Amino acid sequence: MPLFIQNIREDRITSTAELFDKYPHLQENAKAFRSQPLTDVDPKCLLYVQQREFATTTPADNNVSVIGSEDATTCHLVVLRHTGSGATCLAHCDGSNTYAEVPLLIKSVTSLNTCCHEGRLELHLVGGFEDEAMTSHELSLNILAAFQQLPDDIHLQTCCITEMNDIVINAVHRPAVYGVGVNVKTGKVFPANFPYKGPAEDLRSARTFTGGQMVEIYDPSRGLVKVGPCKWSPNMDFAFWLSQDDAIILKYLSTSPKAEPPHFVRLIKSTIQFLLKHPNSDGLFPEGQPQLFHRNESGDWERVAC
C-alpha cells in the first residue's frame, strides 16, 4: 500500500538520490530541519528510547511531554504520528529486522486511535549519513519500502536521511543530526541532546548488546516504563573488550567508527561492565517479571513493584 509525498502516491523508491531529485521540497525541509539549534531536553518531561526500542503515547499523557533518542549514526530515528488523535511513536531502528519492526510501530499508534477517526498518519525520518559501507543507504531504502508495504496510508513529512543528513568535518563524513525529540503535545520534531538516557540505561543497553530485538518500552495507559524480562548467558569474552584500547573498540563494535559521538566507547565499556557484573540475567527479573518504572512527584523515573 502506498507511501504519500505531498499527497502523491509513491509506489517504488529505488534510491535516496532519486527520491530527493523527484521531490526537491524534501531536500529543503531536511536542510531546514538540520539547521535548527539542538535542544537540551529536560529529563523530567522525557521518555528516552534506546537502540532497538520504541515508545508510543498521546497528548493526554501527564507523565511524558517529549519522546526522544540519540546516538544514531547509521541508525535511523522514526517518528510516526496520527494527526487526529495525536498518538505519537518514536523508534530507534538499526536495520536488525526492519520489515518486522515497522508494522509494530503502526500497530502501536493505531491502537491508541480508538476514539478518533479523522486525521492521517505522518512519518518523519532522521538519521544515517554517507558512510563508506553504505549501511545508511540500505537502511533508508528498507525503512521506506517497509512503510510502502503496509495497508495504511503513510504521509512522509520529514526525510533528513543519509545524504541529506551528511556533513564532512576534517575530511570525515558524519551525521549532521544524531538525536531527535518529538513533542507529544504539539507533534513538533526537533534535533535534540539528551544528557539523561534512563531509566535502567545499562540494563537496556545490555539487552540490545546481547542481541535483543525491537521492543516497546512504555505502557501509556499506566505511565510505566517496562524493561524485560530478557535473557543472556555468561560470556567471559566480554571481558576481552575492557582490555582493548578505544580504537579497537570503535573498529570492531561500531558500524561507523569515525562518526561515533565522543561518549560511544564509555557507554560500551559501561554496558560490558554491567554484563560482567550480571553474567546471568535471571537475577535481574525475579520470578520472570519485568522491571517497571513510574515518574515520581519529583519528575524522576522510579522503580516500582510489579
Widest β-sheet, arrangement of strands: 2-1-10-9-7-8-5-15
Report the portion of residues in β strands: 25-35%
Q: What class, by secondary structure content? A: alpha/beta
Average pLDDT taken over every residue? 94
DSSP summary, beta strand count: 19
The share of residues in helices is 25-40%
Rg from alpha-carbon coordinates: 19 Å
Parts with pLDDT < 50 across at least 5 consecutive residues:
none
The number of helical elements comes to: 8
Shape: globular
N- and C-termini, Cα separation: 40 Å
The oligomeric status of these chains comes to: single chain
Question: What is the secondary structure topology, with strand pairs?
Answer:
Elements lengths: L2 E3 L2 E3 L5 H7 L1 H11 L4 E2 L5 E3 L4 E5 L8 E4 L6 E7 L5 E6 L4 H13 L10 E7 L7 H14 L5 E8 L4 E4 L2 E4 L4 E4 L5 E5 L7 H9 L5 E2 L1 E2 L4 E4 L10 H5 L3 H8 L10 H14 L13 E5 L5 E4 L2
Parallel strand pairs: 1-10, 3-14, 4-6, 5-15, 9-10
Antiparallel strand pairs: 1-2, 5-8, 6-13, 7-8, 7-9, 11-12, 13-14, 16-17, 17-18, 18-19
Helix pairs in contact: 1-2, 3-4, 5-8
Key terms:
306 residues, alpha/beta, 8-stranded mixed sheet, 5-stranded mixed sheet, 26% helix, 27% strand, globular
Describe the structure.
- The protein is of the alpha/beta class.
- The chain has eight helices and 19 strands.
- The protein has helices at 16-22, 24-34, 98-110, 135-148, 201-209, 238-242, 246-253, 264-277, and strands spanning 3-5, 8-10, 39-40, 46-48, 53-57, 66-69, 76-82, 88-93, 121-127, 154-161, 166-169, 172-175, 180-183, 189-193, 215-216, 218-219, 224-227, 291-295, 301-304.
- The strands form four sheets. An eight-stranded mixed sheet has the order 2-1-10-9-7-8-5-15, with helices on both faces. A five-stranded mixed sheet has the order 3-14-13-6-4, with no helix packed on it. A four-stranded antiparallel sheet has the order 16-17-18-19, with no helix packed on it.
- Strand 1 and strand 2 form a beta hairpin.
- Helix 3 crosses helix 4.
- It is globular and about 55 Å long.
- The mean pLDDT is 94.
